[in-house]
């Protein structure tokens, strides 16, 4: 089987919850190292990788205290949580021998570079992984939207959304054993069937800019590599 990747440059969206493993919050060392191993497998194919990371694993712990908090303030707290995750991911990559750079949409120069599009593209061209922290830098926008936005700014071939489920299904596969995975979907079909692929803003952004989207499970060994190789893994959402 050919090992030539289908995509040259990808934008990977990782949720903060993906870093928890089986823990209730925080970062699980074994889990983050395994995810880095999945990323390394596609880097070894010559694929350029940008990563947008969420913050739910950290912010979940303070969420009860944030109840009733001003929305913008809570969102900025969430952005800071994503920067913490970005630094943890960078450290895990360093242990694995991967060169990476963290760029933050919020200015925190002591710990991360500010986001500069041209510099980020140059890093990708140098085969460095770029980890984008702090979402879009604006409240009221999710890290899903940040992934769609950065994917377009970086000229990525596709946005890959890593989830706990290995694709988009006709129904919740946990509750309905007869649920069927879609191999491919159009954006209009996903909207028409009210399938929760990404949040509405991110989804509309991908559709309007003709940015393909793949949904797959980061917990399934080798799934990221199979998606990049163009094999039948996850669900491809296209125009």
Automatic annotation (TrEMBL):
Family matches, as InterPro entries: AceGlu_kinase-like_sf, Asp/Glu/Uridylate_kinase, Uridylate_kinase, Uridylate_kinase_bac
* Naturally occurring in which organism (per UniProt): Iodobacter fluviatilis
The GO molecular function terms of this record are:
ATP binding; UMP kinase activity
User: Has the keyword Cytoplasm been applied to this entry?
Assistant: yes
Q: Which PANTHER family does the record associate with it?
A: URIDYLATE KINASE (PTHR42833), URIDYLATE KINASE PUMPKIN, CHLOROPLASTIC (PTHR42833:SF4)
Give the UniProt family note: Belongs to the UMP kinase family.
Gene Ontology CC entries for this record: cytosol
Give the subcellular location.
Answer: Cytoplasm
Chain sites annotated for binding UMP? 55, 75, 136-143
Its domain of life reads Bacteria
Q: What SUPFAM superfamilies does the database record attribute to this sequence? A: Carbamate kinase-like
| Chain sites annotated for binding ATP | 13-16, 56, 60, 163, 169, 172
What EC designation does it have? Answer: 2.7.4.22
Q: Which keywords fit this entry according to its UniProt record?
A: ATP-binding, Cytoplasm, Kinase, Nucleotide-binding, Pyrimidine biosynthesis, Transferase
Recount the known activity regulation.
Answer: Inhibited by UTP.
Q: Which Pfam families does the entry mention?
A: AA_kinase
Catalytic activity annotated for this protein?
A: UMP + ATP = UDP + ADP
Tagged with keyword Magnesium:
no
Pathway involvement?
Answer: Pyrimidine metabolism; CTP biosynthesis via de novo pathway; UDP from UMP (UMPK route): step 1/1
Outline the extent of the Aspartate/glutamate/uridylate kinase domain. 8-217
Protein name according to UniProt: Uridylate kinase
State the Gene Ontology BP annotations: 'de novo' CTP biosynthetic process; UDP biosynthetic process
Q: Any idea what job this protein has?
A: Catalyzes the reversible phosphorylation of UMP to UDP.
């Amino acid at each position: 089987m050919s090992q030539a990747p289908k995509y040259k440059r990808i934008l990977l969206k990782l949720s903060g919850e993906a870093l928890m493993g089986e823990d209730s919050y925080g970062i699980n060392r074994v889990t983050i190292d395994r995810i880095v191993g999945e990323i390394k497998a596609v880097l070894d194919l010559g694929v350029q990788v940008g990563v947008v990371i969420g913050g739910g694993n950290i912010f979940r712990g303070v969420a009860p205290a944030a109840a009733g908090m001003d929305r913008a303030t809570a969102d900025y707290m969430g952005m800071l949580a994503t920067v913490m995750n970005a630094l943890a991911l960078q450290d895990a990559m360093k242990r694995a021998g991967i060169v990476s750079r963290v760029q933050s949409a919020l200015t925190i120069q002591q710990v991360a570079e500010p986001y500069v599009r041209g510099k980020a593209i140059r890093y990708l061209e140098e085969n460095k992984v770029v980890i984008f922290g702090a979402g879009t830098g604006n409240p009221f926008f999710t890290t899903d939207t940040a992934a769609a936005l950065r994917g377009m700014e970086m000229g990525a071939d596709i946005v890959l959304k890593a989830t706990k489920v290995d694709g988009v299904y006709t129904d919740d596969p946990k509750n309905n054993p007869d649920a069927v995975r879609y191999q491919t979907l159009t954006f209009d079909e996903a909207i028409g069937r009210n399938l929760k692929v990404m949040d509405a803003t991110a989804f509309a952004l991908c559709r309007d800019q003709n940015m393909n989207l793949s949904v797959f499970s980061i917990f399934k060994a080798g799934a990221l590599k199979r998606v990049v190789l163009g094999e039948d893994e996850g669900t491809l959402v296209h125009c």
